[in-house]
Write a structure and sequence with these properties.
Helices cover 36% and strands 21% of the residues. It has helices at 21-35, 48-59, 112-126, 129-132, 138-155, 170-173, 194-207, 227-239, 266-273, 301-310, 315-322; strands at 14-18, 41-43, 71-77, 80-86, 99-106, 178-188, 210-214, 219-226, 245-256, 295-298. Strands 1-5-4-3-2 form a 5-stranded antiparallel sheet, sandwiched between helices. Strands 9-6-8-7-10 form a 5-stranded mixed sheet, with helices on both faces. InterPro entries: Phi-like (IPR017359), RWDD2A-B_C (IPR059181).
Length: 332
Amino acid sequence: MCALSSTSSPASELSLMYASLEDVAQDLDTVIQSRSSQGEWTWEAADEQEQEGWTDFVHDPSSKATIFGLTGKVQVMHGVYLSFSLRSGSHAHETGKCHGAVVNVSAPTLAPNQVSKLKKALIDRSREWEQEGIETLFLFDLLTTAQEFTADLADSGQLTDASQEPELPSSETNSVSQIELYRALFWSHHLKAPSKLKDFNNWCPELGIWGIVRVGYPGYLLFEGESSAVEEMVRRVKGLQWHALQLRVETKWVLQKQKEVEQRSLLKHALLSCPLAKDHPNNVVVGDGKVRTGCHVIESLGELVKRMRECGLDEEEIEGALGIRMSSASAR
């Protein structure tokens, strides 16, 4: 029997150990079947062929399907997800070998303290498995726990309205005086595949962050927003396991609440204050007053440099991201 391990910090990932790949496939199949009617399970595959291989593995774990990098996520409720990643060492179909996986929480629609409580609830539940003799269906059990947790939040009136953009509940805005923001700049050897752009077009609005992507050779990824949301994006980008990818520049800062934002969400104010929000195509005035984040795709390197300068990024940060020495003529 494989031992189960979990992290002690509610802010950390949860590690699982399965006795066999058959147990992994059974757990995933149970979760997928339980959410299939709502379409709330999605593979985070690089292309359709990889997704088909992972699906074949779930249906028949004895098949020769390649499962290296297997990653997917299940929606607990609007804006709340559990992501599942099979560790890289689990790609071999070997007997008598434990297979590790990692579960993470992404919940941009919940307040930070609620996210911490949800993660703690999942870790506490995982520590009960050995006592209760639970040796499989770990992800399904965590999904059930997460559903119960969010249902309790809804019953107690603590849950953010699912129709709203990610923001702190109004009951907490007066007690929150600051918010941490984070900007991450990636370099990639190349970025051309439409499937990769589709991921970013979906993830940016889901997580409530601003994205700017330069396609071509090389490719560049710029993400900015609330710190935990950008950290989740960084985790997902790294999870794509591209062969040539570097997180070149990271910038974090704290925005203090000002008196003039008493009547509006602090997170909304913070998102609108982000440098990458300036002239972003998704940053438009809408009738419902919501902040609409998204991904802006750029093809020209010169246009990217110009865009970064217009956003107010300093030359040192731009040079660090691009990996080249800039001059005043570089923007042309």
